[in-house]
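Researcher: Please predict.
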Amino acid sequence: MKAGFISLLAAVALGGCGDPQPTSPPAKPQVAPAATNVPARSYPTRGVVRELPGGDKAVIRHEEIPGYMPKMTMELTVRHTNELAGLNVGDEITFTLFADADTHWIESLRRVKAASALVPEPPSSHQAALTPKLRELQPGDLMLDAELLTETGRTVKFTDFRGRALAFTFIFTRCPLPDFCPRMGNRFREARELLLNRPNAPTNWQFLSISFDPDYDLPPVLANYARNYRGTNPDRWLYAAASTNALAQIASPLDLKYAREGSSISHNLRTVVLDSTGRIHRQFDGNTWKAVELADALAQAAGVTMPKLPTP
């Protein structure tokens, strides 16, 4: 499934708990309550059409929305698709962004400058390092290793989680749209609650939220952001940041679209479950999967054991 494309001005982030340690028996998590019945807020803005994938979607690089989010490139949902008629890639437009507790949409699209009058931006020098295409990992394949900086200031690698099933996703702290990074955090929160409260559930599992923006999402930022989703209980949920080199190692094998456009970062959504031997168990693309699906996949992956070596 094609994931929503997101891009952030110099920032993408995650939050976390502690470094990998043996887990304690299940306990009820103390979590921040999810927002409900939040009325939609509107933000008039402008941007440039980057892609028209069809249907009710438009990829737009919009300017900063003060007090809400920085300059980003995102695949946005168009409420009235007739407003896309006549628009072309490269057109500069004005529009209004709406967001409530669960989703977003845009309305009142108006072209203010045609594509032919715009000067295209040069590609970033960082983009080339992230474009080499490697074979996409499939279920049963061993996850490539990469080093991450955790919210506690220590480093951790994927191999450090061997013996536990691991669910990881990619987010960034300054993305406020509810159906993008906040939805990833809320789904992780819900899945963790399900596992902690499920009778006879396995205990050898771990959640990991990975930030794209190591320069902005420093350990204190991640720790503070994590409280929005974990509350005061960090049990089996870690936040960390990936360097540009680490992302270059793992992006292509996960079909994670990640590229810099000037000072912004574009990416899609990928959530991956590894079994206790470090192999791909399942991958969730986009943002429409449910928390119970993730909890079930993680519980199944936790039951996978390392095959016994033949006796010499």
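Model: Confidence is low (pLDDT under 50) at residues 7-18, 21-35, 122-131.
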